[in-house]
């Protein structure tokens, strides 16, 4: 068996690929579902914290800053393990899927809050003054004038951060979430062949390469409008 034949037998085995591709395909659905839930909850929570910080309540702002810094510093894998294995000790059992979702959501929310907050502060102060001069109160000025501009500014960095966090769905394999990496590792263990890992890599490329290309277009478009 030549070198290429040995590589093909180990990593591109057609028989193994035919057997485990359906499982990888099913795992792609789990990965997509988990990623969508993380993005929706993380961005919403991050925006909510940034808006709450705009109210200028010192105690609340201090609590937000400490919490955000904590989750920005915490590696997502460590957080997943702490939630999955730690909460049951307190009588709160969390399935692996939801432990992964909660950990990645908290990390994304922490980064999103800082991005939204920086974007809000990047809006010229004259925009606030113009809104107040029109007789609008604080919240209408924030919601109608400031936030639309801030969100536009925040889109490019949020896009990169969101992609980075959603790729972290692979960490769910540590707590038995049947996502792509978990299914690939299981297939490799049962088949004794690394071909399922190659299928997993192909699945990740199929999912995230279009997202990366789309993010480049989004960054260019919003940078031009800014």
Topology:
Layout: H1 3-11, H2 14-54, H3 58-73, H4 76-86, H5 96-122, H6 125-133, H7 138-166, H8 180-191, H9 195-225
Helix pairs in contact: 2-5, 2-7, 2-8, 2-9, 3-5, 4-5, 5-7, 6-7, 7-9, 8-9
Written description of the protein model:
- The protein has one domain: MetI-like (MetI-like fold), CATH 1.10.3720.
- Helix 2 (14-54) packs across helix 5 (96-122), helix 5 (96-122) crosses helix 7 (138-166) and helix 8 (180-191) runs antiparallel to helix 9 (195-225).
- The protein has nine helices and no strands.
- The longest helix has 41 residues, at 14-54.
- The chain is mainly alpha-helical and 226 residues long.
Based on the model shown, name its key terms:
mainly alpha, 0% strand, elongated
The ordered H/E elements are HHHHHHHHH
Q: Report how far apart the termini are.
A: 59 Å
CATH topology: MetI-like fold
Radius of gyration: 22 Å
Largest sheet: none
Helix content: over 70%
Counting structural domains, the number is 1
Strand content: under 5%
Care to give the gist of this entry?
This protein has 226 residues and is mainly alpha-helical. Helix content is 82%, strand content 0%.
